[in-house]
Amino acid sequence: MSTRPRSRALVAAAASLVLGGIAVAAAPARWDLSAFHAFLLGGALYAGALRRHVAGESAPVAGAGAAFWRGAIARAGAFLLFAGTQAIVCFDLAPGADVRGFFVILSSWIVAETALG
């Protein structure tokens, strides 16, 4: 692995954690989210939306840097839109719903996708 993909991965992972923190800070206080949730959201953003994108970008093509970051921003935006929509449903529209079963299934799927590729 060359330095460029590794540095892109580090930047993408750090940016994911920062974006997770910003998203949690912007969430309504009634959701009672904490720094732990920001870390989880940022980690999920990197693992679920950006890890494969970063790993797949190794060809040195002219202008590939800008295209890489546009793709990363689009993927991150889509992920945060999905996460925000789910949060609104869970916290505001159906606060009494028991979503533990769905959480276990989906988080297991994400871990398997990430760890097993």
Quote the distance from N terminus to C terminus: 18 Å
What radius of gyration results from the CA coordinates? 16 Å
Domain count, please report it: 1
Structural class, please? mainly alpha
The beta-strand count equals: 0
Q: Count of helical segments?
A: 4
Describe this structure in words.
- There is one protein chain.
- 13% of the residues are buried.
- With 117 residues, this protein is mainly α.
- It has helices at 3-26, 35-56, 64-93, 100-116.
- α1 (3-26) packs antiparallel against α2 (35-56), α2 runs antiparallel to α3 and α2 packs parallel to α4 (100-116).
- The chain is built from four helices and no strands.
- It has one domain.
Topology at a glance:
Blueprint: H1 3-26, H2 35-56, H3 64-93, H4 100-116
What labels describe this entry?
4 helices; mainly alpha; globular; 117 residues; 79% helix
Short summary of the structure?
The protein has 117 residues and is an all-alpha fold.
